[in-house]
């Protein structure tokens, strides 16, 4: 089974980068500066920001479905980056992080899930997609719970 992992479209986030801190706060968002080369995973580029880079931390609906599994949480995004795409390989934000992989059917209902230790994401993704009930997988950081990326059949 081949799969594709794509970063979020940067366009909906562009207005946030032009906002001042008060405007961001009114939207429940914050401007943050990465304090390390790891720990600030951009959901557009699917790579960690480097120390000193500016990001926006905001609330994001990652699973926008009309089911009990609708999901939202905080994510980081960086300005000036393009949506990354990875085919049959996992992005840098999956490296060295335990992941919760949630497999959904075409109606947005959870059908199966896996926990993947660092380095095990590819095998767990392929395992979930081996059957025909899983239409897509949402990956989340297992510890913090934040949305990492959507995985779709290619």
Descriptive account of the structure:
The chain is mainly β. The chain has one domain. The chain is built from three helices and eleven strands, in the order βααββββββββαββ. It has helices at residues 14-18, 21-26, 121-129, and strands at 3-6, 30-33, 41-42, 47-48, 54-63, 71-77, 85-87, 99-104, 110-116, 136-141, 147-153. The strands form three sheets. Strands 7-1-11-10-8-9 form a six-stranded antiparallel sheet, with helices on one face. It starts with a strand and ends with a strand. The mean pLDDT is 96.
Please provide a brief summary of the model.
Helix content is 13%, strand content 38%. Strands 7-1-11-10-8-9 form a 6-stranded antiparallel beta sheet, with helices on one face. Strands 2-5-6 form a 3-stranded antiparallel beta sheet. Strands 3-4 form a two-stranded antiparallel ribbon.
Question: How large a portion of the residues is in β-strands, by DSSP E?
Answer: 35-45%
* Number of helical elements: 3
Total tally of structural domains = 1
Structural class designation: mainly beta
- Return residue spans where pLDDT drops below 50 for at least 5 consecutive residues: none
Radius of gyration: 15 Å
Helix content: 10-25%
Q: Main sheet? A: 6 strands, antiparallel
- How would the global form be characterised? globular
Tally of DSSP β-strands: 11
Gap between N and C termini = 8 Å
- In N-to-C order, the SSE pattern is EHHEEEEEEEEHEE
Write down the overall mean pLDDT: 96
Instruction: Order the strands across the largest sheet as they lie in space.
Output: 7-1-11-10-8-9
